[in-house]
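Incident log, support desk, overnight shift.

02:14 A customer reports that sequence design results differ from what the structure should imply. Their input is reproduced verbatim below. On-call engineer (initials T.W.) acknowledged and began investigating.
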């Protein structure tokens, strides 16, 4: 079985998240939505890569969830759709809670958190 890309290197995952949020805190407001969208799309892509590489069950939900939210943020930044920040925050929270709740239940039922 292939391992997930963050196995034995949690610091890489945390580094991506910390750098993403640091960039969002120090950059100007005009490009902030684009950086946030790119950040969500990157994290979603890494999650999907992880799911197809090793089969970690939460990665499928977070992958598609973050990609979808990332593209919505991009559309919002380009003024194609209007989405409130509160709704985006709730959507991110729902994706995270849903994904890890599903993984918890999956592990409880099957004894592992990998689908493969």
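02:41 Re-run completed on a clean worker. Output:
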């Amino acid at each position: 079985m292939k391992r997930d890309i963050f196995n034995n290197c949690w610091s890489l995952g945390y580094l991506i998240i910390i750098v993403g949020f640091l960039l969002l805190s120090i950059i100007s407001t005009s490009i902030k939505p684009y950086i946030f969208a790119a950040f969500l799309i990157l994290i979603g892509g890494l999650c999907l890569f992880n799911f197809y590489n090793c089969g970690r069950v939460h990665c499928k939900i977070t992958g598609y969830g973050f990609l979808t939210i990332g593209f919505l943020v991009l559309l919002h930044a380009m003024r194609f759709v209007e989405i409130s920040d509160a709704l985006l925050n709730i959507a991110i929270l729902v994706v995270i809670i849903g994904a890890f709740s599903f993984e918890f239940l999956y592990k409880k039922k099957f004894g592992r958190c990998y689908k493969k």
